[in-house]
UniProtKB/TrEMBL annotation:
Keywords tagged on the record: Molybdenum, Oxidoreductase, Signal
InterPro entries named among the record's database cross-references: Ald_Oxase/Xan_DH_a/b, Ald_Oxase/Xan_DH_a/b_sf, Ald_Oxase/xanthine_DH-like, AldOxase/xan_DH_MoCoBD1, AldOxase/xan_DH_MoCoBD2, AldOxase/xan_DH_Mopterin-bd_sf, TAT_signal
Pfam families: Ald_Xan_dh_C, MoCoBD_1, MoCoBD_2
GO molecular function annotation: iron ion binding; oxidoreductase activity
PANTHER family on file: ALDEHYDE OXIDASE 1-RELATED, XANTHINE DEHYDROGENASE
Entry keyword annotation includes Signal: yes
Protein name per its UniProtKB record: Xanthine dehydrogenase, molybdenum binding subunit apoprotein
Domain Aldehyde oxidase/xanthine dehydrogenase a/b hammerhead: 48-159
Species in which this protein is naturally found: Lentzea waywayandensis
Family matches, as PROSITE patterns: TAT
Signal peptide: 1-28
Amino acid sequence: MTTRRQVLKGMGLGAAAVSAPIAGTAEAAPSEAIGSSWTRIEGKDKLRGRARYTADIPVEGMAHGALVTSTITRGLISGIDASATLASPGVIGVLDHRNAPRLNPQAGSPFFGPDGQFLLLQNDVIEHGGWPVALVVAETPEQARAGAERLRVSYVEQPHDIGFSAGHPLLRPALPSFGPDANKGDLDAELAQSAVTVDERYFTPPESACAMEPHAATVWLENGKIRAYDTNQAPFGVAQVLSVLFDKPLTDVRVEAEQLGGGFGGKTGVGPQLILATMAAMIFSRPVRVALTREEVFLTTSARAATEQRVRLGVDRDGRLRAIGHEAAFELSVKAEYIENCVEVAKVLYAADAIRTRINVVPLHILPPNSLRAPGTAPGSFALESAMDELAERLRIDPLDLRRRNEPEVGPVSGHPFTSRNFLRCVEEGARRFGWAGRDHRPRQRREGHLLIGTGMAGTSFLTTAFPSSATITAEPDGTFTVAIAAMDIGTGARTALTAISADVLRVDRSRIRLRIGDSALGPAWGAGGSLGTTSWSWAISSAAEELLTKLESKPSLPVSVTSDTTNEIFSLPPRERHAYSAIFAEVAVDPATGEVRVRRLVGRFAVGRVVNPLMVRSQLVGGMIMGLSMALHEQVVRDEVTGRQVNADFAGYHFAANADVPFIDADVVADYEPDNPLGLKGPGEIGTVAVAAAVANAVWHATGKRQRRLPITLDRVIEG
Ligand code: MOS
């Protein structure tokens, strides 16, 4: 372990590490696999178009399904006239609530319980716009689409409510799935005794994940068993839910994918494409592929919930926090529970005498919200870190000093020790790289011609842990090792990272590793979610490797296999505060006449544990920061109050940051190591996104003197008359 820790030291990810020739390749010493900037194993296949995504894999005799989605937001289906559809060329049949297989209403997620979003085509009830009401199955995708356009669905409309606000009469507490509200100390008393306070409200809109690859599934039945290729982040978890939905034993369901073109949370669970394709394969006794259009991805998969958050802070004259109050409300659908857990950071990031958090929901007639990169944490830290900047402004101190003065020694609410806390290291190293020293903290002091220039910063923590998984490693007679785990590479480079990890823990060159992933049949495993894929999968792989190496000492005849299960180890970890950390620094130029905000520079420093692959970790962090920039300035799902439908369900109307929006980005890690993970790992997947929106909003205030408490910071919100 000592040598590995030494390798970790000085592992900067800066420009040098990326532009230098890629270290490693075949000559690398086996023990140095982790830490090498190998390019993606499947990179050449992707460049040449040979890598197979779900909708690239044909299945013999396959038919195609096209969705018909509800044009009303709430009401009942009063009739479906399929005559024109059935007369349309190539159409095999129509699936709707009258002939679809019955589903088990208990199917849901372990965190939020039964999920009504899965219960497609079960009745005539419509509770949000875009709800699938039928699937038209035909010989070709074009014939299916043409048939779908000819389906006549009539409705009886009922009034809908999509108007979210924290003052809504239906406001109620969220499920307590992620731990209780914080109730430390007496918030009101501490606020009353504070020298300076902040009490402000912050607003974030619904957002869509917008993975480049639209959702698709191909399903066929093999001796009564469900076989599927499907775009998802968690093949085992998806197979589990599918088996409950269709009342099959888990052994009768197998879900696979070779490549995934992004997920960002939008593919964490069972999507409509998979449920509908499974139903159609059963009813029409044919393999059926359902590939969603971009509009259907927006209307039928999931979105980040809109939030309204109230943050109250109180400090002594010297900048020591006495009070942190964070109350969040978010929108929920009437169909399913979910938690946009905005308030978690407030329990972790700063010491304070009193900390109180609340989290409430408003159920509405909207697409059920679900995870989107850094769920909860991204909107939550926008509110908390904007409020911290407002506090520094009112105290007239450096925002960095406010962080330095409130560094906790133990978990501020839990009292548990931190396993490794390098938040201030991120802040200091980021500030040095950015050139923060000497900043005039008063707003509206810098101009370049007609442009107003400002800088801002924000930071965050992001929970890290691991989830139980199992891996099977086989020592083959030819000297290679087959490593099998139901992991998914959603484009992050997980396949490459797990190969390096396998080589290290088996102490062989990576050319001797054969990795199998992307298949639910490989056993229980956590998915690519929560930034906990690699921490969870590598634990299972290292645990199996250890046992296999011991077994091999007795020179057994090959092949020999070992299967690990990390459930006991992970669930017996003592209670501790385990987090990754970040500090983000932004420089913006604002045109006060047009309201245009251009982000000129972004610097991020991250404590994300030991780095498995510097090249890919940097890609994750830069990509995450771009997503945060996009959240700050561009992204929002816009719904029409009258029809209830999303009006920008395409890439023309839903803008996210494109190349021209993205400035120079400097992302790097600070030295960090997670002692409660066998390989020292934390997750670098989501933390890149988290604090960026607040850093940009704080920079816009510094440039203009006007606070931006509502995302995205569009031109109309900035423009000066
Ligand atoms: Mo995620 S939003 O953990 O896929």
